[in-house]
């Protein structure tokens, strides 16, 4: 199958799946009780992600203790990261506010209960941290990408510490994650990773033309407690670099 035929077929498949997951949301999450609304939304995103990743010919090699609650801190490469992690474990994600305006994906992010961050408003940090704490208190896993932007995956960018305040508080598990992608018919760092001057629709259409996407997803538990968020950011960064090094050496 040529790339153009594959893209056309997958766009049709995407539309059908979108209808299915919207109906699923109406039946399973839209009218869920307030006290379990976030969990219902996270479970909906889990199901929707598993369905939509099939469109990309997506497979994942997952290892390590999969987090179920608390805070998960991961590197960030692409919009696929959200689907890749959500397909493994139900979660609420923290994302930049621009995603809210993306066609279809932004709408789905709102339905999934995403916590949006406007990084141009420093005064919003306290509100977002409070929202993260609220989600954690309900027993739902929260996923944070503290690099603040996606990269090409060659390294892990320095972590921003502003949204790690909830992680400095006792009583919540803290996990780390590392994601890596491969494709057979192209360059994953340019065609799966979404960074630099990439624009969404051309990048997505190109990705839909690839035969398949293979992901490596690794999880680990962060041990100990650090009350200073800047020091915590440095320690988490080092731990994720270790995951990257371990898995790069083994590949």
Sum up the structure in keywords:
single chain, 251 residues, alpha/beta, seven-stranded mixed beta sheet, 43% helix
How would you describe the overall organization of this protein?
The chain contains eight helices and seven strands, in the order ααββαβαβαββααβα. With 251 residues, the protein is α/β, with parallel strands linked by helices. The protein has one domain (3-250): 3-Layer(aba) Sandwich (Glycerol-3-phosphate (1)-acyltransferase). Helix 1 (3-28) runs antiparallel to helix 2 and helix 2 packs across helix 3 (80-88). The protein is globular and about 55 Å long.
Q: Quick gist of this model?
A:
The protein is of the alpha/beta class and 251 residues long.
CATH architecture classification:
3-Layer(aba) Sandwich
The helix content is: 40-55%
* Through-space gap between termini: 29 Å
Structural class: alpha/beta
What is the H/E order? HHEEHEHEHEEHHEH
**Average pLDDT across residues?**
93
> Could you list the spans in which at least 5 consecutive residues all have pLDDT below 50?
none
Number of strands: 7
Largest sheet: 7 strands, mixed
Radius of gyration, taken over Cα atoms and rounded to an integer in Å:
18 Å
Counted by DSSP, the helix tally is 8
Q: β content, as a range? A: 15-25%
Give the class-level CATH name. Answer: Alpha Beta
Q: Strand order, biggest sheet?
A: 1-7-6-2-5-3-4
Q: Any idea how many domains? A: 1
CATH topology: Glycerol-3-phosphate (1)-acyltransferase
Outline, from the CA principal axes? globular
């Amino acid at each position: 199958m040529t790339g153009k035929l594959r893209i056309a077929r997958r766009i049709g498949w995407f539309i059908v799946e979108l209808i299915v997951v919207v109906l699923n949301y109406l039946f399973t999450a839209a009218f869920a009780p307030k006290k379990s609304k976030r969990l219902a939304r996270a479970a909906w995103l889990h199901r929707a992600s598993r369905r939509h990743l099939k469109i990309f010919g997506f497979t994942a090699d997952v290892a390590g203790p999969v987090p179920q609650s608390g805070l998960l801190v991961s590197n960030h490469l692409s919009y696929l990261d959200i689907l890749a992690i959500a397909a493994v474990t139900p979660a609420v994600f923290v994302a930049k506010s621009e995603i809210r305006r993306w066609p279809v994906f932004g709408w789905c992010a709102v339905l999934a209960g995403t916590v949006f961050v406007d990084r141009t408003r420093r005064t919003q940090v306290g509100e977002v941290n409070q929202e993260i704490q609220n989600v954690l208190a309900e027993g739902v896993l929260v996923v944070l990408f503290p690099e603040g932007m996606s990269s090409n995956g060659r390294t892990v960018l320095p972590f921003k510490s502003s949204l790690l305040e909830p992680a400095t508080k006792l009583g919540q598990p803290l996990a780390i994650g590392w994601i890596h992608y491969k494709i057979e018919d192209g360059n994953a760092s340019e065609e799966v990773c979404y960074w630099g001057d990439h624009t969404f629709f051309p990048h997505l259409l190109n990705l839909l033309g690839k035969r398949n996407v293979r992901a490596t997803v690794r999880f680990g538990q962060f041990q100990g407690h650090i009350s200073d968020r800047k020091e915590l950011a440095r320690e988490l960064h080092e731990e994720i670099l270790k995951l990257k090094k371990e898995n790069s050496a083994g590949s």
